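SUBJECT: A protein chain and its fold
Encoding: whole-number codes for local backbone shapes
Chain under study, with its fold:
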Amino acid sequence: RRNNLRFLRVPKGWKKSDLKGFMVRLIKQEVNVEKSEVDIAKDIQRVHRVPAKMPSNRDRPRKILVSFQTYSLKEHILALALKKKSLSVNGSPFEIWSDLASVTLNKQWELGKRIDMLKKLGATAQLKCPASFRVIVNNKMYYFTDWKEVDELIRIIEK
């Protein structure tokens, strides 16, 4: 997972045999990676759409998983994508995320819900990768990895 990126909401319509070529062009053009398409293609080990968890009536495209040879290229692409802020293919917006374990994603989701609560209370809160949380209250900084500890801080601030 360390070298993988997940591309979300990339439209359907690309044949499995051409998916790697499509992703190489997408990375080169939309993310503005300063490498040739040949070099990017060499650095990609595997590209595939993630299977759906269960049959769905929604016509939402499945995530695309791209596995790179090196961690540094994966991080470089992710950093460029974050700088660009909005990415789109054929007018459809898409997102790029690190491929994290479901445990880490769930932890991020739980911690992320608290950001809005803390902002409403006047605190500065930030989710740090992969699943830690930084809160600044009255010029004092706190670090958390467990959302229950964050809930305790929220209770203290509310009083």
